[in-house]
Amino acid sequence: MCGEWGWSAEGVYLSTALRCSLVRVTRKEVQKCSDFLAEELLIVGPRLVLVSGRVAAVAVREALGGGIPENPRAGDTCGVFNTTFLFNLDVARIEGDEEAARVFWRVLRRAEGFLA
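Structure (tokenized):
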């Protein structure tokens, strides 16, 4: 995808909000991983974080606190520690749902503006 969007692979860092494979994500599991996520964000120091899906949004809020909106919608943004957080739908939602796919790709295109 990076090449398709004209992004340098060296400038993109991929991560996950949770560190274990779970069938059903619980609040307790999100809390267990929150320190790891917070530390990772502080070490990497990204300019932009694309937050894909509800679980990721809850995890980022758990890791960074009240600066992250409680119920962000696709396209919402906020800034914490010189990092912009851009919220999007979970990528799993776009398969077979044309409207969700349109929203997902529209939000992803906005990321280019934050990286210019």
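The radius of gyration is 14 Å. The helical segments are 2-5, 27-44, 54-64, 98-115.
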